[in-house]
Amino acid sequence: MGIEFIAVSDYLKKVKKVAEKGAQLQISLYIWGEEGTGKHHLARYISYISPVKPVIVEESQLGGLKLEKNRFIVAVGKTPFGRLPQRYFFDTDIYLAPLTEHREDIPFFVDHFITQARRELKVDRAISLQHPDISQNLHSLKRQIYQMLLAPASLEELEECSYNFFRFNPRYRWQELEQSFIRGILRGAKEVFKTKVQISQQLKINRVTLTKKMKELLNG
Question: Euclidean distance between the first and final Cα of the chain, in Å?
Answer without folding.
Answer: 47
